[in-house]
Amino acid sequence: MKRRDFLSLSIISLVLTPLNALAAVWNKTAFQAENRVDAEKGLSIFREIESKDIEIVAPSEAENGAIVQVAVRSHIANTEAIAIFVDQNPTALIGNFLFHPAADPWLVTRINMVETSDIKIVVKSGHTYFTARQQVNVIENRCGGSSRHDEPFKSSIKVRAKQQEDDREITQINAIITHPMHTGYSKDVEGQLIPAHFIQLVTIALNQQPVIEMQLGTGVSKNPYFTFNLNKAKLGDKIMIVWHDNLGYSDQADTVVIA
Q: How far apart are the first and last CA of the chain?
């Protein structure tokens, strides 16, 4: 999970970058790997150390494997990136999240789990990789089968940036993106395979400078939801979120930090 694997871009260049160049940014080798070992190799992860300084908050049982909320916090000094894996998914790598100094190494999102499995977290700090696991028992998988494969695509973004009442030094970012996040493995109500259509790249910027960069796979739930904390935002600062998907669609939205 070398820093160059994310190819840090300014928010303006990300918006203007051609599709073929953006496709080159997304780590195809890691995200299309069918098992976790190969996915980790794709991120150049090696010699992992088990750590109690990685906090995973996830349900012990998930009634609906299509929407499993996961929170991850790294208490490891100088955390640069957090990767999420699910061993038993068709593709193991869920997401790879790069944190710039203005962002806390903490995130909340929702993921797909096709069956009972470990959630594995790998944290990168300098040249060292740390890891932790938590098992989630999936009671029922409800991924796919609820829509037609040829429904028209519509998307939107809702984003909020609010200083925390108990600590004005921390600004919490909440974002939800309307997107089908089709995995390419599910069938619609008519029994036809739904082609893969999912967000690959997301950047959150503070005053046009990236603070969090994400590469995502097919394991992120429909209508992706994210929560992050920034530690250097001030009232009135501009927050922008930009995403690009595998079919060439993109969108962006912005807001300002409020109290």
A: 36
